[in-house]
Design brief:
With 319 residues, the protein is of the alpha/beta class. The protein has 14 helices and 11 strands.
Length: 319
């Protein structure tokens, strides 16, 4: 069955998701498939990879698209106000509660509730989320009447919830409630061939009247950078470069010196990943950046053409 869905673009376009790299396409395939259901989704990925934008895309493509999309920044909710903000409160429930106030769960009725940084919720409050998901009912603080919750849940975190469960920092039963359908968003260092698209899209949003783009040298420089802040960091770098650039091309000198030094955090993260994954990522990047034929690529990599063929064949099967 083939579904034509306007989920992402392969050219610069406003605030929508843009990309064409293999890692990006794999992610978008999962997003497109899960959007049509009402299943809980858990988005994993480093900070700055665009988890809220993906969550909003899932909502936009879902049967609940006409309903509200309610984002909740869990790390920004004070512990003493967590229950009141999420479930609301009744008049007189506590000092200064002068009127009934609906919570964010109620505000998401008919739509999507997005709990960002779900891993930052304290253990004492995690049981309240678990009870909500199990019963689909809640009470405003200070109220005796239970209400029915009607929302689709999408959660996101940059933390490793499985390790948090093992350390006793996250409830195991809640983890399995949330992790029905997991999507891991690739870091920007695994989407090097999307850099030009992303930069053009950012320029369109920041200075739409300006006709400017990145030079080949600038793209080569950024392609070697680790981007510990991912797409969010790239946006800041582009905005800075636009201020410094007087011509019609962004040049290497318009970017900070750290871009030429690589990304120490990214290198540390990659150093503890499985060797097979590192080799696969390196091969994808080499293929994307190399302009010649397979023989010249094998020569640059220091392996035989036959060995390169075998590695690329294995890579194609895993992709």
């Amino acid at each position: 069955i083939m579904h034509s869905v306007d989920i992402a673009r392969t050219e610069a376009h406003g605030d929508e998701l843009v990309g064409r790299s293999p890692a990006f396409q794999r992610t978008m395939a999962l997003v497109q498939r899960i959007s049509r259901s009402n299943t809980n989704v858990l988005l994993l990925g480093e900070s700055g990879t665009g988890k809220e934008l993906v969550a909003h895309t899932i909502h936009r493509l879902s049967p609940r698209a006409d309903g509200p999309f309610v984002p909740v920044e869990c790390s920004g909710l004070p512990a003493q106000l967590f229950e009141s903000e999420l479930f609301g409160h009744a008049r007189g429930a506590f000092t200064n509660a002068f009127r009934d106030k609906p919570g964010l769960v109620e505000a998401a009725t008919g739509g999507t509730l997005f709990l960002d940084e779900i891993g930052d919720i304290p253990l004492a409050d995690q049981v309240k989320i678990l009870r909500l998901l199990e019963t689909r009912r809640f009470r405003r603080v200070g109220d005796v009447e239970a209400k029915t919750a009607d929302f689709r849940l999408v959660c996101a975190t940059h933390r490793n919830l499985r390790e948090m469960v093992e350390r006793g920092e996250f409830r195991e039963d809640l983890y399995y409630r949330l992790n029905v359908f997991e999507i891991e968003l690739p870091p920007l260092r695994e989407r090097v061939d999307d850099l030009e698209l992303l930069i053009d899209s950012m320029i369109t949003r920041i200075q739409p009247e300006r006709r400017i783009g990145p030079s080949a040298a600038a793209l080569k420089l950024l392609g070697r950078y680790g981007f510990p802040g991912n797409v969010r960091e790239l946006k800041n770098l582009v905005e800075r470069a636009l201020v410094l650039c007087d011509g019609d091309e962004l040049l290497p000198e318009h970017f900070p010196a750290r871009c030429a030094e690589g990304g120490s955090r990214a290198q540390t993260v990659e150093a503890i990943r499985p060797l097979a994954e590192l080799e696969a990522d390196y091969l994808r990047r080499a293929v994307a950046l190399h302009d010649g034929d397979r023989r010249s690529l094998a020569a640059k990599l220091g392996i035989s053409e036959r060995a390169l063929y075998r590695k690329l064949s294995r890579l194609k099967r895993t992709d």
